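User: Hey, my collaborator sent me this sequence without any context and asked if I could get a structure. I don't really work with proteins. Can you help?
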Amino acid sequence: MFRELLDEFGTLDILINNARGGLAAMVEHITEEEWIHILGINLNGVFLCCKEPIPIMKQKRYGKIVTVASVAGIRISYLAGAHYTASKYAVIGFIRHLAYELAPYGINVNAVCPGIVLTPLVIDTASERALEKIRKIIPKGETSTPEDQADAVLFLVSEKSKSIVGETLTVDGGSLLGWQPNEEYERWKKKAFAQRSGGSPWAGGKNR
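Assistant: No problem. I've predicted the 3D structure and written it out in structure-token form, which is a compact way to encode the shape of the chain:
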């Protein structure tokens, strides 16, 4: 991928890591294969994509690296399982360490931590009832949009953020200020696990 990019454009100034995988499950229901798979997407993918452009950016003494992490890496995941949470905590730790190594070369490394975002995937798979419950713990009373996250990324790759290094910018409408009862968390995870074979692994199917 990077070889093709360099063949076409000749250089690289900005890298944005934006991929995620997650499944709803209690820890006792997570298989080793699922654990490895989710960490492979969310953590290994970030490591591999960050590693490639380092020599290019070091030579230029300039670069912007932004990774889309999650509020799950600050607290825990609302929708997904512990493997998702673990991967996002690890990503934030990796980004902070990488930021320390690359800052002397004029390379800014930061992360954006979205809350629940109304992506097509969430809209298609989460029931309206589940989304309404989520909105109730967001002080602004609304979930964010992909455009909200994009604006945060644009800020971090601009020169307006040139002194921001190794930080996580939370874009969640204040959801970290609220939470849910543990019994509700456990009840939802078990229901989602039971329905995974016939519906969404995130929210147990549509409009229930």
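In plain terms: The longest strand covers residues 107-114. You can pass these tokens on to your collaborator as they are.
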